Amino acid sequence: MLFNFANILVFVLVGGGFVGVSLFVSRLIQPRFPTLEKGLIYECGEIPVDNAWINYNLRYYLVAIIFVIFDVEIAFVYPVATVFKNWIAEGKGMIAFIEIMVFALILFVGLIYVWKKGDLNWFKEVVVTEDTRRTPEEATAL
Amino acid sequence: MSGFDILFFVFAGFALVSAMGVVVSPNPVYSALSLVLTLFSVAGLFLLLQAEFLAVVQVLTYAGAILVLFVFIIMLLNLSDFELMEVRMGNLGKALLTLAAVVAFITLAFVVHLTRITGDPAVEGFGDISTLGREIFTHYVIPFEIAGVLLTVSLIGAVMLAKKNLTKE
């Protein structure tokens, strides 16, 4: 069993070695005339503006939290999925199915909760008054 | 020294060095990246202990998803004010913290030394994913469903906490 993971080890070694060797060889044979333009961070040909580390919208964080929870759920379902066929063959498929559905339903409650609370909506409902009404240009800029 | 021993020392060494990097690095983003390396090395150690599923989940959820959250938090703090993030403390505070760390280390080393590890898995072939699935279906059905409840509770709690900050903005 453990021997299978030797493949991954070889893969990691070859992959890492590939990067190391090609960087080393190119360092040996490349001509080097550094200029300011060449040293700039590549940003699709644009001159980079400001720092790349910016404050992201906090709403991404909410989505990321919800994702992590369901990521863990899937991690729980994986081992069950591997044995499910055997259980069907043994005629115990229905029990297994109910067990896993109960698990999924419990988590579905959480999903319904965040859905109902409107946390999945990207745009929160805003009260529009004369002062806060946006021009179409401003709205598309969002 | 067998190949396993060599691999163990390689993974353990990487884990230690990158864990040091997490603490020492002045830049929080580099700390987070070091943490990724630490988690990968620990996943390697899990593999050596034949806990394949644990290793894969470690990489998928910790190195993948949870580190994203960490980087998120780092981005939320204003990175341009590095000086603000420096912890300022006097010599007394540093001495006390060092003492606490040393005491904690000695205690940990003592506990590890005293623990007798038999090396027998709880179930034959436990690290194997299908064995795990079989156990979930038979012996551990109730804990499995309770884990679902726990996940739901943490989902709702986390969203509540995060939203408290959102509405404040």
What is the fold's blueprint, element by element?
The complex is a heterodimer of chains A (about 140) and B (about 170).
Chain A: H1 4-29, H2 36-39, H3 58-89, H4 93-116, H5 136-141
Helix pairs in contact in A: 3-4
Chain B: H1 3-24, H2 28-48, H3 52-76, H4 82-85, H5 91-114, H6 129-138, H7 141-168
Helix pairs in contact in B: 1-2, 2-3
Description:
The complex is a heterodimer of chains A (142) and B (169). Chain A has 142 residues and is mainly alpha-helical. In chain A, 65% of the residues lie in helices and 0% in strands. The longest helix of chain A is centred in the middle third of the chain and has 32 residues. Chain A is flat. With 169 residues, chain B is an all-alpha fold. Chain B is 79% helix and 0% strand. The relative contact order of chain B is 0.07. The chains are: A mainly alpha (142), B mainly alpha (169). At the A-B interface, α3 and α4 of A face α2, α3, α6 and α7 of B.
Quick overview:
Helix content of chain A is 65%, strand content 0%.
Query: CATH class of chain B, please?
Result: Mainly Alpha
Topology pattern of chain B, helix = H, strand = E:
HHHHHHH
CATH superfamily of chain B: NADH-ubiquinone/plastoquinone oxidoreductase chain 6, subunit NuoJ
Biggest chain pair interface: A-B, 48 and 47 residues
The structural class of chain A is mainly alpha
How would you sum up the global shape of chain B? globular
Strand content of chain A: under 5%
Q: Average pLDDT of chain B, to the nearest integer?
A: 82
What is the string of helix and strand elements of chain A?
A: HHHHH
Helix content of chain B: over 70%
